[in-house]
Amino acid sequence: MNGAADMGGMMGFGPVCPEGEDEPKFHAEWERRVFALTLAMGATGQWNLDMSRSARESLPPPEYLSKSYYGIWLAGLEKLMTERGLVTPEEIETGRSLQPPKPLPRILNVDAVATVLAKGGPTERETNTAARFKVGDRVRAKNMHPTSHTRLPRYVRGHEGVIELVHGAHVFPDSNALGQGEQPQWLYTVRFKGTELWGEAADPTLSVSVDAWESYLEPVA
Amino acid sequence: MSHDHNHHHDQHHHDHEHGEGTILSEVELRVRALETVLVEKGYVDPAALDALIETYETRVGPHNGARVVAKAWSDPAYRDWLLKDATAAIASLGYVGRQGEHMVAVENTSTVHNMVVCTLCSCYPWPVLGLPPVWYKSAPYRSRAVIDPRGVLKDFGIELPAGKQIKVWDSTAEVRYLVLPERPDGTEGWSEEDLAKLVTRDSMIGTGLPRQPAEVAR
């Protein structure tokens, strides 16, 4: 969806403010808790990574833009859990469990943490389809505006680029976020010239590469 | 390099006072309430929460990536492997897993500078760099990195030569990018351990350059 998360090329946010190499990983205790709760609940398998990204980026733009990063994570986590009836808004308000828990097939126990993190969540899948594009092919990012989750940023839509890398078939976020299955597709890195994306005034030394699934792309003759 | 403006940390919003002089923000109270409910329901193991925090606060960080870079600077065969199959080359040093499942390393040269961003959220190679800094996840960086990377670099105090090519990598899938910075001059004969001291987090994102030899103690 064309939400507030899709920020590439927006203006007016001001300078980047680095805190230096020794910046703390968390800036408040509640950030630690939100981080850990999000990972632990994610490990229960009640939603996938694409669903959790979708929950965050579908926050109304004024809300998304006014929250801190872990504030967005918190809102996303609450949404994922309340949508599934794991907790109720009243329980979050009161801090008390008012309904019996839903049975979860998996809980992340302390003994499993290291193994689960080391395993991660690889998204490459076996495929018996042939890649439609090869390195060097010219492609255009489709001019498309799905109302649900997608990973094709607005700033490349309708623009021409060149296939730079071919990554194999990967889980397709647009379907996976909707609970419609992984539907793996070939994934490519596509390189765009800065002037193609941003016009004549762009930095002539700039190129921008994005990772794009096959159905995001069409061939350029 | 400290700036007070334009930060979005919720701890600045201490607008709710509670008894006994305790000041807890709305968000702190809400998170505490949520955690209480989830523990009470048995959805989360409190010890697992602590282990997750401990892992990313103390164990995983840019010192991992620095080891990868130092090895690539020292060992041409490893450099070639890293550029060809970063996932395997990085895994050979023990850095694997969440948010680093599919790695690509991109090499800075005298003519090319690479810079990594995630305009859509905050994708970042956790096993080699740890959790991303606040600025990486912030709107200023995510919005400007792809349209004005030279301007962004100026915010980091870096000015690249005018003719240098800038390649920005927007992490829009599950591929994670690591910048292999240029090895500083004057480091001939250095051990991997000493070379790793030159490698900064920002130099592996592409918003910084490695330290100069005179800046580190050997």
Q: What layout of secondary structure does this protein have?
A:
The complex is a heterodimer of chains A (221) and B (218).
Chain A: H1 29-42, H2 49-57, H3 61-66, H4 69-83, H5 89-94, H6 113-119, E1 124-125, E2 138-141, E3 160-170, H7 173-176, E4 185-193, H8 194-198, E5 206-213, E6 217-219
Antiparallel strand pairs in A: 1-3, 2-3, 2-6, 3-4, 4-5
Chain B: H1 26-41, H2 46-59, H3 62-74, H4 76-84, H5 86-91, E1 102-107, E2 112-117, H6 126-129, H7 134-137, H8 139-144, H9 149-155, E3 165-170, E4 175-180, H10 192-196, H11 201-205
Parallel strand pairs in B: 1-4, 2-3
Helix pairs in contact in B: 3-4
Mean of all residue-level pLDDT scores of chain A: 97
- Name the helix and strand elements of chain A from N-terminus to C-terminus, one letter apiece: HHHHHHEEEHEHEE
- Which overall shape of chain A is indicated by the principal axes computed on the Cα atoms? globular
Largest sheet of chain B: 2 strands, parallel
The end-to-end span of chain A amounts to 29 Å
Could you tell me the strand content of chain B as a percent range?
5-15%
Radius of gyration of chain B: 20 Å
Q: How many helical elements of chain B?
A: 11
The backbone outline of chain B, from C-alpha atoms, is: globular
User: Strands of the largest sheet of chain B, in order across it?
Assistant: 1-4
Uncertain residue ranges of chain A: none
Largest interface: A-B, 98 and 92 residues
Succession of helices and strands of chain B: HHHHHEEHHHHEEHH
Helix content of chain B: 40-55%
Quaternary status: heterodimer
